Here is the input.
Amino acid sequence: MFPIYGLLRAKTTGLSEKQGMKVDPQLKKFLAPYDGRIQNLTMELRNFITDLIPESNELIWDNYNAVAIAYSKSEKLKDAFCHIAVYSRHVNFGFNRGAELKKGCVTLSGKGKLIRHISVKDFKSFPKKEIERMIREAVAISEKLNIELTKKQLQPKSMVMSISEKKLRPN
Here is the structure.
């Protein structure tokens, strides 16, 4: 399913899966219809977030048109600071309050009131330093809106929020 996931985790972070938040087995199932490149890119982006903000929860939706994964210091989407949306040819890396982030080197797409994203085709070209700054800023915005998020939580969780009956998938 994830042919080089263990290798990627060790190579990119020096951590095994057991040391970080365990991947919900259903996430692997949801990603199975996607090409191996998209699966690996999704997991690399996931590791990037969970290594940077290890106390965040992973909220997973298996939606009609994409698998969506939000990262929040609570179990609520309203507190999420960033997200991943998986499509057949690329993965979007987004910020739930991206319109409120300071402008930087990375240009975010989106015309809605709050959400902004970048389209990611491969992890090698992913602007890690700038995105790290943006994630930290996004976490600070979330914490400012909900002071409870500044309290230390016991153990981060990876949880499935909903599964759509009908799905548009590549395979």
